[in-house]
Amino acid sequence: MPKLEQVEDILGTLEGFTVKENWDRFFTIRGSDNEFEWYAEWADLRGPLLAHLSKLQSQTLPLQILVPGCGVSNLSDHLYDAGFKAITNIDFSEVAVSDMLQRNAGQRPGMKWQVMDMTTMQFEDESFDVVVDKGGLDALIEPEFGLKKGNQYLSEVNRVLKSGGKFVCFTWGFCDVLGLLFSNFRLGWKMGIYAMPLKPNCTKPNDLQTFMVVAEKEMPSAVHQITSTFKISHGNQTCSLLEALENENRVRKEYSTAGSDMAVLT
């Protein structure tokens, strides 16, 4: 059974994050008993994530949650244990889905696991109240495909999410990813960006901080400024994100101004 350090080394050599066979190999080598989280841990995600989910929770109907690109993360396990029982997990790796089924079938009855490509989902329109993505969008951005797969995926998120629902995306906030999020969720969405706490041993300049982007599906023509709750705190990563955020809010302000001018003319 490989140790955590060996798992991280294997992941570092993984070529082609959008190739199913590469992930099957990684999950096979990793083993089913090795928990692995390459983004923030549940202890750091729990408070901000549950705060957003609780606002949507109905007293009569369970919140329908989709976790695309679930891999072998324990995120869904923790969500289930926190009281959210209607969770559907998808991944295009049969190895990952098989491992997770074995791990959860007895302990968490009712939680669903399906082999499915998140860029072409087989779900009806407006099937889910929440889509929770932990690193899935980041993994779709590759030089070979450009932004194609990322755009396909976010189009699917828009399609399967109910009106008033939320897309919660945990990301490292690289420029290409932010560009996709901003452009796909500009018209008709409210958006906020929140910084997750850094790990205690995260001291080197090249260590990455996780951010939580929350996009709420609203009126098709509405344009809102993006809210944020962080300051420059961790080198170039946060500086780049703040710069991209300021630029996008300028674009959104121009959209709002243009819309107001058109309303006056009519």
The strand line-up of the biggest sheet is 3-2-1-4-5-7-6-8
* Percent of residues in beta strands: 15-25%
Largest sheet properties: 8 strands, mixed
Residues in helix, %? 40-55%
Structural class based on helices, strands and sheet pairing = alpha/beta
Radius of gyration: 19 Å
**Number of beta-strand segments:** 8
Q: How many H/I helices?
A: 9
Unreliable stretches (pLDDT < 50, length at least 5) are: 1-11, 262-266
How do the SSEs run, as a string of H and E?
HHHEHEHEEHHEHEEEH
Termini separation comes to: 69 Å
Shape: globular
Overall pLDDT: 83
How would you portray this structure in words?
Helix 4 (75-81) links the parallel strand 1 (65-68) and strand 2 (87-91). The longest helix is centred in the C-terminal third of the chain and has 31 residues, at 235-265. The protein has helices spanning 4-12, 20-30, 42-54, 75-81, 94-104, 136-140, 148-160, 175-184, 235-265, and strands spanning 65-68, 87-91, 112-115, 128-134, 161-171, 189-195, 211-217, 227-228. Helix 7 (148-160) packs parallel to helix 8 (175-184) and helix 8 runs parallel beside helix 9. With 266 residues, it is an alpha/beta fold. Residues 1-11 and 262-266 have low confidence and may be disordered. The chain is globular. An eight-stranded mixed sheet has the order 3-2-1-4-5-7-6-8. The protein has nine helices and eight strands.
